[in-house]
Amino acid sequence: MAASPVIELRDIVVARDGSRILDGIDLVVRPGEHWTVIGPNGCGKSTLLRIAAFREHPTSGSVRVLSAELGRVDIRRARGAIGWVSGGLSDVLRHDLSASDVVVTALHGALEPWWHEYRDEDRHRATAILDQLGVGSLVERRFGTLSTGERQRVLLARGLMADPAVVLLDEPAGGLDLGAREELVASLETMTTGLTPTVMVTHHVDEVPVGATHALVMSGGRSVASGSIDDVLRGEALSEAFGLAITVDRRADGRFSAYASRPPL
């Protein structure tokens, strides 16, 4: 018997200004699964993730995360068990906060450290997570002085700080150069080898970390393909989603790459 879903989104519709951003999308994530949601710009990936994070309501459809049903629970409490990683947090966090402050404030879903008291154990945990992600030396550095890649890994540490039951990552490698992206993907692999389920939104198959188990390919607010990553992350689904004849390769180390084999269809 299959384990109960950690995330269960059914027939999700989001309509705005007469257009459907999402049109009947399903996403069901079970314990131990690591999902990648991939598709072109504007296909609704980030909207879907925000709904799973209890940060946006759909026009219609049902949303259950960690047995809590959106619309029937206090979303402030429900969010506490959801690790949320988004580059957009960089714009709302005060840039003179230390990396340690950025990480520990996640314990209370806060953006400022003065609203709550933090124990030495909390600070030690923040440092340990930053160490695990390869940026432990930045613990006292001001957030605003960090490179984009360093900030993304600090935000990743923030997403793990409260020991969440599920982690949602919205384009964590967005805007990174090649070196910073590869460092971040290596950090993500420490998560996809664990038991805590994850869902990551990306545009690029080469950002999919080793250990990802499932994929949802989207286009135009709809699902093109969904299921085991070996069955879904193929040229056929990506060609349909992106409107190009795409070839997908998987290297011996488990990483993916993709390229267009001829001009747009």
Secondary structure blueprint with pairings:
Elements: E1 7-16, E2 19-29, E3 34-38, H1 45-52, E4 60-65, E5 68-69, H2 75-78, E6 82-86, H3 99-104, H4 120-132, H5 148-160, E7 166-170, H6 178-192, E8 198-202, E9 214-219, E10 222-228, H7 229-232, H8 235-242, E11 245-250, E12 256-262
Parallel strand pairs: 3-8, 3-9, 6-7, 7-8
Antiparallel strand pairs: 1-2, 1-4, 4-5, 9-10, 11-12
Helix pairs in contact: 5-6
Can you tell me about this structure?
By secondary structure, the chain is α/β, with parallel strands linked by helices. It contains eight helices and twelve strands. A six-stranded mixed sheet has the order 6-7-8-3-9-10, sandwiched between helices. The protein has a four-stranded antiparallel sheet with strand order 2-1-4-5, covered by helices on one side. Strands 11-12 form a two-stranded antiparallel sheet. α5 packs parallel to α6. The longest helix is centred in the last third of the chain and has 15 residues.
